[in-house]
Amino acid sequence: MQGERNPVGGDTRPAVRDAAPPTGTGRRGAVVAALMLAMALAALDATVVSTAVPQIVGDLGGFSYFSWLFSGYLLAVTVTLPVYGKLSDTFGRKPVLVAGAAVFLLGSLLCALAWNMAALIAFRIVQGLGGGALQGTVQTLAADLYPLKERPRIQSKLSTVWALSAVAGPGVGGLLAAYADWRWIFLVNLPVGAVALWLIVRHLHEPERKTTARARGERRTGAEEEATARARGERRTGAEGETPPRAREGETTPRAREGETSARARVDWAGALAVFACGGVLLTALVQGGVAWPWLSAPSLALLTAGLVLAAVVVVVERRAAEPIIPGWVWRRRTIAAVNLALGALGLLMVAPTVFLPTYAQSVLGLGPVAAGFVLSVWTLSWPVSAAFSQHVYRRIGFRDTAVLGMGLAALILFAFPFLPYPGHAWQPALLMLLLGGALGLFQLPLIVGVQSTVGWSERGTTTASVLFCRQTGQTLGAAVFGAVANGVLATRLGGAGDLDSVTRALDAGTAPEATRHAIAEAVHAVYFGAACAAALAVLVLLLLAPRKFPVLGD
């Protein structure tokens, strides 16, 4: 088999053929439509409840617990991502996506039937258990359906759907709560999800895969491991990115055989349970710390300690498992480890605009909720356009350097925010958001497409779930860290009088002096400076850890 030229930087590599595409090109359009509908549902339900909280609380009560309507859903999505990624590599994408969609729709129906706040929170968690499958498996299937040259197109479409759905969520929720009933927020998922589910069942066809020693959970011999490493294009003791030996014409590579699985494959249920427990405890500590209780209180310390103990348990369980949920190679391979850390930094810095910019627009600029939402939403215009354009850049300079360029620009834009004049005009932060969306489009899509292209079918689900999990965890960590930063700045400027939430409520009521607006502006400026530092850290990680040319496998 002749070597092929790598389309992302000129690195010559053998065309290691992985598994066949999961469906014919004639039915690909229907499957893509289903993926876009599923992605829209997962993104919409993360934000759709926010504007309907008054109506929900008025009907069900439980105001002191309503924040769990958001936290419970996001926690469930985050902790299930690694599990669904491994299951999709073991049993195939279709059964995982169908099961996840069914759970999501069941959760939506139960949410619409909730009789009190506790039941609604519990059913939102059920919804999130299905949402994790939608979010991770959709991204993996997109890479399965399209060859490397065409992946930017589908990924930019999914990015557009995700961004528009997330931004439209509060508006849709507010309209349904005001003119219909808040329960319709969840009921509208049923027909849309049913169409997506039907399209997947009807049109997505994956090739049957045979059972191998790897799928059955048996440990392979050293010779088998060496053969797999050669097929992957790596030397077991060499540096990543070396040109591998060419495969012989007509030879079936161990890499392709690794992708063959069957229903008899073992599942690391102990590892899945440990990941659930560890992720749930640690993320709960981050979400509720500084909100439901002080950071140094007994509940925070107890949750953090329990989370660290469970993290040690996860390491022990996963090291002993034949087919771990979070395999060690996710962090041993330089390319995947670098993308994990970089996407985690992306999740962290995104908290600055998505959480704090609306407060800044309303409290400092004096805008209404709709206008404040527009200031934030303008980045959804530039992000997908930049993402689609990024393929022309990374084909010339490579995945890593394109991402470094995008995140370097993002760091400069975030660092410019604290220098905006006070109180300023709405177009100024809106312009920065437009530029930020363009920079992040150059960053995220090349990394996702690149890292998916370095693995075969049998590892793509785990790899995709790993980077999405790190991005979600970064967002959770960013909300906790930047919330503490903002409250700390306010306490310093106002002499310890209140936190960001209480100060914002005072502004809404018209009872806060001008000095309070200055304090909020300084708090948000500090958050943006922290986000710029996170962007700089992502650039540093990519430069120091990621190989300049990703070891891309042939289609």
From TrEMBL:
Stretches for region Disordered: 1-25, 210-261
Record domain Major facilitator superfamily (MFS) profile: where: 31-550
Domain of life: Bacteria
Bilayer disposition of the protein: Multi-pass membrane protein
Localisation: Cell inner membrane
InterPro entries registered for this protein in UniProt: MFS, MFS_dom, MFS_trans_sf
Transmembrane regions: 30-53, 65-84, 96-115, 158-178, 184-201, 267-287, 293-317, 338-361, 367-390, 402-420, 426-451, 526-546
Keyword entries, A-Z: Membrane, Transmembrane, Transmembrane helix, Transport
Xref: SUPFAM superfamilies: MFS general substrate transporter
Broad class of where this protein is predominantly found: membrane
Name of the molecule in the record: MFS transporter
Organism: Streptomyces fuscus
